[in-house]
Specification:
Elements lengths: L1 H10 L1 H20 L1 H29 L6 H20 L1 H29 L8 H20 L4 H30 L8
Helix pairs in contact: 1-7, 2-3, 2-7, 3-4, 3-5, 3-7, 4-5, 5-6, 5-7
Length: about 190
């Protein structure tokens, strides 16, 4: 299977490169105008929730005798409501998503630090990177919290942009490596 993946990546490296360039450009745009990027991401999330909720509702109603019907119905309804709320008032949705992101950074940061400390004996030389990851999560949460209310408008869009920029850069690097590798070589 590894040879098939390598061959496929070598054959389609140009598509990966194009995708990486587009994602990087969109990431840079989001970094330059984070409020617009945040609102755009909020609307996209709204549509994703709404569509997935409607599809889930239709599927659930079609399988009304299946186990867990009530929970599936509740899940689909929550997705529809969340999507509708995000679309109805995207600015308030952006604020809510920023609060959720901040809470995620706090919880994830604490858990990653605890995990790093718990595994410091087994992961000699590597646990420090986990610790740094946890500290960075807490620092990001702190930056957002100490900048309230101003950060509510730009933090989500900026972080989406940074993620897209690094994601695009990794796609570009992968594509260039796949281009160099022959169809039967391993990618390094």
């Amino acid at each position: 299977m590894s040879a098939d993946v390598t061959k496929s990546m070598h054959e389609y490296w140009g598509l990966f490169l194009a995708e990486g360039i587009v994602v990087s450009i969109l990431g840079l745009a989001a970094i330059i105008v984070p409020p617009i990027a945040g609102l755009f991401a909020t609307v996209v999330f709204g549509w994703l929730f709404l569509i997935s909720g409607i599809v889930g509702l239709v599927a659930t109603l079609g399988a009304s005798k299946a186990p867990g019907f009530e929970w599936s119905l509740l899940s689909a309804s929550v997705a529809i409501i969340a999507g509708a709320l995000l679309l109805w008032n995207p600015l308030q949705g952006l604020v809510t998503l920023t609060y959720v992101l901040t809470a995620f950074f706090i919880v994830d940061g604490i858990f990653v630090i605890v995990l790093a400390i718990a595994h410091r004996r087994e992961l000699t030389g590597k646990w420090e990177w986990m610790m740094v990851n946890g500290v960075i999560d807490l620092m990001l949460a702190g930056i957002i919290i100490f900048g309230f209310p101003g950060t509510l408008v730009w933090a989500f869009g900026l972080l989406v942009g940074i993620d897209m920029l690094f994601g695009g850069a990794s796609l570009i690097a992968m594509a260039l490596e796949a281009r160099k590798a022959g169809p039967h070589d391993g990618l390094s």
